[in-house]
Amino acid sequence: MKKFLSVLCAAALSAGVLAGCGGTAAKGNKVEDGATTIKIGLSYELSGGVATYGQSSVDGVKMAIDEVNAAGGINGKTIQLVECDTKSDEAEATTLGKRLMEQDKVIAVLGPATSGAFKAEVPDANRYKVPVISGSATADDVTVANGKVQEYAFRICYSDSYQGSAMATYAANTLGAKTAVIYKDSSSDYAIGLTENFTKTFTEAGGTILKEESYSTNDKDFKAVLTSIKDLNADVVYIPGYCQQVGLIIKQARELGITAPILGADGFDSPDLVGLAGAENLNDVYFTNHYSSLDQDPLVQDFIAAFQAKYGRDPDAFNALGYDEAKFLCDALSRCESLDSISLQKALSETKDFKAVTGTLSVDENHNAVKAIVVIELKNGEQYKSEKSN
After folding, report:
1. Measuring CA to CA, how many Å separate 296 from each of 260, 365, 370?
2. Per residue in 118-130, pLDDT tens?
3. Which pLDDT score, from 0 to 100, does residue 190 have?
4. How, if at all, do strands 373-379 and 369-370 pair?
5. Domain that holds residue 344
6. Angle at 282 between CA 278 and CA 283, to 5 degrees
7. If DSSP codes are grouped into helix, strand and coil, which group holds residue 40?
8. Domain check: are 359 and 256 in the same one?
9. Is 275 found in the same domain as 368?
10. Side-chain half-sphere of 199: how many Cα atoms within 13 Å?
11. Residue among 262, 310, 267, 306 nearest 290 (CA)
12. C-alpha separations of 267 from 23, 58, 136, 318 in Å
């Protein structure tokens, strides 16, 4: 069995070290004839504020690449990951993305996980003609900016407009909510996009947003705002944000006696959420997500079993997205006319009906994934029920 190869970015700063790949920025990067490896960049948040999402994604990526390499690689060539840590910093993501493309001569970059960091590397992807792929960058302007498709940017997840609208529809139609309060991270593009689309769809369904409150990324004490939210007695509370703050907000909300259903997005799906909020506080909590472990599809259950065997724990959605992202890339590599970044971009854009753990997906004209969305209900901190919506 061929072992998966991982190289730290810092060890490969010199272009002279990188045998096997060639090409220039204007012509993209390519795998040279006779090379035994295909270099792929892995640029994720392995430390810093949103490391939980990057670490989970990387675990999924590495599992997928191990499987591909064990099965003979791509055309007999082994996938070699050049691994970098963006430190949850957008400027660092820009620097590392450029380094991977310009110096390491990778033919694609996987990651980062979050929208802002991913968008930071897109300009260089277009400049160097090297595809960048995210499993979880959901902001609406990730693949289309100012009305123009970002030619070398791809994602395998849905957009914030889709999941914000889906949660609002679920709140109105399934939960019967007529009123809502929104408590969002004012500094996050992710939270702002979700808020806009939840508000639009909820009000169109006849609902009323009683109030919109904001918090900052470094806040720890939310009780003053939550007290005012409690007094409004809304049918639901929508908290679009990442688990580091959301977990604390939910804990403090329940301790203050807020019993209304709490709604959120895929940022809820982290192993850290239960530790922050407390399992006893995670009841009547609903969030949009990419997949559910409750799904009995054999592809999902086989993935869960393999992940448990490899890592000794249950996978979360970001594990599944990392896995799918890598398999999505390898599927396109297997269809390339030649192993170069420009041919790869064409193959990625032509993907149709790719069978993934997080749902069968096709790439549309805007380089977005066309796939189903899942709404998950938590009971005592565990997935209790899931509902899939196309």
Report:
1. 30, 31, 21
2. 999 999 999 999 9
3. 87
4. unpaired
5. 5-158+298-372
6. 145
7. strand
8. no
9. no
10. 17
11. 267
12. 38, 16, 10, 9
